[in-house]
Design a protein that fits this description.
Distance between the termini: 38 Å
Structural class: alpha/beta
Order of helices and strands: HHEHEHEHEHHEEE
Shape: globular
Length: 190
């Protein structure tokens, strides 16, 4: 549980209840399809944040390593991931990726700043308070490292109308109403 002044109540992510648990039970998530979350496939969530996406990929059968650069969020995530099959690493993704040799790397570098006057939602405000969104150079470097490291593919979560991360055209995209998953380096999975 975490408290941020902009939230009306404490933020709590319960991996086993509510909307997140319902989404995990459905198994047909766009995210699971994008990362091809097959049983035993090693997926690294290199920008784990609150761990929601890591939990969904784990629930779909993937072996998930979650990396979070913010010490505060990393600690919080490690506490919430107890009792799950998610391995949590704290620190910069660049410091961990090369030693992991993952099948798939998943990136959710936070959505770009909006031009609208409305503020982002409570969870996003909480995340941004502890881990500001990476700048364009950091995003490009992380994507390049991910492409050099992943054995089969890199998946990047983006707002539906946002440009591709670092202006690199994906091999394919899976689109929903509000988000899309851009796929890079699609190779046949084992």
């Amino acid at each position: 549980m975490g408290i941020h002044p902009s939230l009306k109540q404490p933020l709590r992510i319960d991996f086993h209840a509510g909307d997140l648990a319902r989404r995990a039970r459905q198994g047909g998530e766009m995210l699971a399809k994008a990362v091809a979350a097959a049983k035993g496939l090693h997926v690294v969530d290199a920008t784990a944040g609150l761990g929601r996406d890591a939990f969904l990929m784990m629930s779909a059968g993937a072996r998930v390593t979650a990396i979070e650069s913010s010490p505060t969020l990393g600690f919080w995530l490690a506490q919430n991931a107890r009792g799950t099959a998610i391995s949590v690493l704290q620190g910069a993704a660049q410091d961990h990726l090369a030693g992991l040799a993952p099948d798939v790397i998943y990136l959710d570098p936070m959505f770009p700043h909006r031009q609208k006057s409305a503020q982002v939602g409570g969870e996003s405000q909480f995340l941004q308070a502890f881990a500001p969104p990476p700048d364009a150079t950091e995003q490009a470097e992380l994507l390049t490292l991910a492409l050099d490291t992943a054995r089969y593919r890199v998946v990047v979560k983006r707002p539906i109308k946002a440009p591709a991360l670092a202006d690199r055209v994906p091999s394919a995209s899976i689109k929903g109403k509000a988000v899309r998953f851009d796929l890079y380096g699609i190779r046949k999975l084992p």
